Amino acid sequence: MEHPPNDRSDATENRISDLNPAQQAVLDDLGAPASERPEFPDDLRHHLRAAIETAVEPFLDALPTGDDLFVSKHRLGRVHGCEARFLAEEAEDFAWNVPIARGTITHKAVELAINWRREIEPPVLIDEALARYEQDTGDFGRWLQGCSEVERAELRSDSLDAFTKFVECFPPLKPGWRPVTESRLRAELCNGRLILAGKSDLTLGAADGLRAGKVIIDFKTGGFAPVHLDDLRFYALVETLRMGVPPRLVASYYLDQARLVPETVTEDLLRATLARLVDGVRILMELTHGGRPPGTMPSPACRWCTLIDDCGDGRAHLAGDE
Predict the structure, then answer these.
(1) Would you say 224 and 252 are in contact if contact means Cβ atoms under 8 Å apart?
(2) What domain count does the chain have?
(3) Contact 225, 300 (CB under 8 A)
């Protein structure tokens, strides 16, 4: 099977071809010969599932009959931060805006690029992505159809910037790598009362029996944040519950820096992620069904929090930074 992300011999061959240094660095970081790819026990997912269900069952007893608890990487990350801000954001209705829409358009352009039969011209693919969604009858399509000309111009500009950086810095995706964009992950536990779900930006490769081979990648603009590691570890756990074999690597790719931050997936990492998930479920249930007042966790993000005018901890934190 052709698998450059898993085979350093292909990366060496590509080094003398037309890859630029940034693209070559990605192949070097992702590469691993078959002998270095780990194998995992065939009962790993059953042990992980049993451990999660045993730990969270007491917390889920507070769920009303017929209800479930939905956990995504974003929800888990926010509840481990400032609880007051988490509840305030939970109460807000979702609304599309340019920063959120940029990721959707950029990912669609990447998806189109995988099977594009002509020369890849970023403006053309971004316009194709916009056109596809403008014909959609869903919420995003309606937002695109009704947004102002200024918002659409900003969306096109921001999406073009992100996609151009992807084309410049990431090696061209070959069909043999099994690239999949916007790959959905889902695991249902405790008879459907706990749902773990996510959507990764890009996956490459696949498991070979019990030998890990998949790589899960999220694309980021801006700089590194520790929660990015937690997000990908959550994906690794859900993938393991789903498939029975963990991904070999998870990685954030920072487009502005042309920098890949990979992490090897191990059983210890999965069990640490499991503990963070269980603790998150506990907090979620206490806040949303147990009536516990939320705590605060001051941070630089207080500057953009809608609660700042009434939050003494947040104001004190920001005053100390001045």
Answers:
(1) yes
(2) 1
(3) no
State percent of the chain over pLDDT 70. Answer: 94
For the segment 171-227, what is each residue's pLDDT rounded down to a tens digit?
998 888 999 988 999 999 999 999 999 999 999 999 999 999 999 999 998 889 999
Q: Could you please report the per-residue DSSP string of 79-121?
A: HTS-HHHHHHHHTSPP---HHHHHHHHHHHHHHHHHT--S---
Residue 17 placed within a domain: no
pLDDT tens digits along 225-276: 999 999 999 999 999 999 999 999 999 999 999 999 999 999 999 999 999 9
Q: Is 137 helix (H, G, I), strand (E, B) or coil?
A: coil
Q: In the predicted model, what is the mean pLDDT of the chain?
A: 91
Distance CA 256, CA 220 (A): 8
Torsion, Cα 123 129 133 139, to 10 degrees, reads -90
The string of DSSP codes covering 236-256 is: HHHHHHHHSS--SEEEEEETT
Residue linked to tokens 């498991």: 207
Indicate whether 209 belongs to any domain. no
**Structural domain of 111:** 98-173
Please identify which residue in the block is written with the tokens 């921001």: 158
The per-residue pLDDT for 164 is: 97
Q: Is residue 136 part of a domain?
A: yes
Angstrom distance (rounded) from CA 279 to CA 145: 42
Residue 289 lies in a domain: no
